[in-house]
């Protein structure tokens, strides 16, 4: 029986900052990008921007003045992210 569980925070940090996680995040971002494009008029620019904090991250942006209306009315980004398996949480809920 296990008496004590100790997390290897250094190892977890290395794993999250590693190339494998970066590739996974970038792949999911491209998946979300494709799902967003499928909901928009042809030729609408949808951009993926990889970046790094303490781990790999990426943003998906609709580069069109109508984007806020599409998100507000149809939730194009939220729905695409949810379909890609991303858990969506309301940041205002705390």
Q: Mean pLDDT score, rounded?
A: 92
Number of helices: 4
Sequence of secondary-structure elements: HHEEHH
> How many strands?
2
Major pleated sheet: 2 strands, antiparallel
- Based on secondary structure, the structural category is alpha+beta
Beta-strand share of residues: 5-15%
Helicity range: 40-55%
Biggest sheet strand order reads 1-2
pLDDT < 50 runs, ≥5 residues: none
Taking the alpha carbons of the first and last residues, their distance comes to 36 Å
3D shape: elongated
Radius of gyration: 17 Å
Polypeptide structure, described:
- With 94 residues, the protein is of the alpha+beta class.
- It has helices at 9-16, 19-37, 67-74, 76-83; strands at 46-52, 56-62.
- Strands 1-2 form a two-stranded antiparallel ribbon.
- Helix 2 (19-37) crosses helix 4 (76-83) and helix 3 crosses helix 4 (76-83).
- The protein is elongated.
- It starts with 8 loop residues before the first helix and ends in an 11-residue tail after the last helix.
Give a short synopsis of this structure.
The chain is built from four helices and two strands. With 94 residues, it is of the alpha+beta class. The longest helix is centred in the N-terminal third of the chain and has 19 residues, at 19-37.
């Amino acid at each position: 029986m296990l008496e004590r569980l100790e997390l290897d925070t250094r190892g977890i940090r290395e794993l999250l900052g590693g190339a494998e996680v970066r590739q996974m995040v970038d792949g999911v971002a491209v998946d979300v990008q494709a799902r967003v494009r499928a909901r928009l008029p042809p030729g609408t620019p949808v951009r993926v921007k990889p970046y790094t904090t303490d781990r790999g991250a990426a943003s998906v942006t609709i580069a069109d003045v109508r984007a806020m209306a599409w998100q507000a009315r149809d939730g194009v980004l939220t729905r695409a992210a949810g379909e890609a398996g991303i858990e969506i949480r309301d940041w205002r809920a705390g």
